[in-house]
């Protein structure tokens, strides 16, 4: 297991088993890898995806990091906090005009010492995917979408070694986390991937860029669970999130992990998993994003 920094709880990431009559009836086991518990700010997959970029920056004292994200970006706030803890100067390029009041996410970025720069959408779109290394700065693409980000995400897999799941479920934004997992998965482990964007049709090309490989016979993409598109939601999803919390004390975020959990539950209900399946659902964090929901939407 990789040694992350002492301020992170990476030595004891919980694997929570969800226990319910209906899961027993289907004869499947379902665990959740609670990456959301690694740290309250730099939670979930973001820590892993950032790992090698941080290492690169730390190798040269004074080297800065800049990266990209929207007003509610989990990636921006995680980068801001990680840079603060490692004494790395950092800049966040934010999509769109500067708003009259900053979102809570951006306020936090600012508190952690990230310089915020607002980019018009066109310029943002042109620059947000770039990886660059300069003498005094590393430019990290939005969401860590780069082979180095995938290598970092691969560091999640040792946490599943004891469980030896038959199915690993993961949600997809940029597919960087999926790429890391798929690189390390055994040939008999099935990967069930749930895009949270509508019409994400270029997953094979993304995986090729991120991993250098192009054939993944153990991957299934389930693309009916985006709830209308990125960050879209409805009352059904919020009800599901509240039920999940009531039944299992499992908090999820409406952008990513709730959609994944919803998909996994539906797949179990539809007998997609054969009896005896040992399923793990990667809780990729992101709970801070729920602050953008209307007050009172959630019971947690
Ligand atoms: C950023 C994020 C993702 C997306 O991960 P990718 O590696 O971009 O696919 C998934 N879940 C949560 C909670 C996130 O914050």
- What ligand species are in this complex? pyridoxal-5'-phosphate
User: Kindly, what is the distance between the CA atoms of the first and last residues, rounded to a whole number of angstroms?
Assistant: 32 Å
Whole-number mean pLDDT: 95
Low-confidence stretches: none
| Helix content percent band | 25-40%
The structural class is alpha/beta
Radius of gyration, in Å, reads 19 Å
- Strand arrangement, major sheet: 1-2-11-8-9-10
What's the total count of β strands?
11
Which range does the strand content fall in?
A: 15-25%
Number of helices: 10
Output the helix-strand order: EHEHEHEHEHEEHEHEHEHHE
Biggest sheet details:
6 strands, mixed
Query: What form results from the Cα inertia axes?
Result: globular
Quick rundown:
By secondary structure, the chain is of the alpha/beta class.
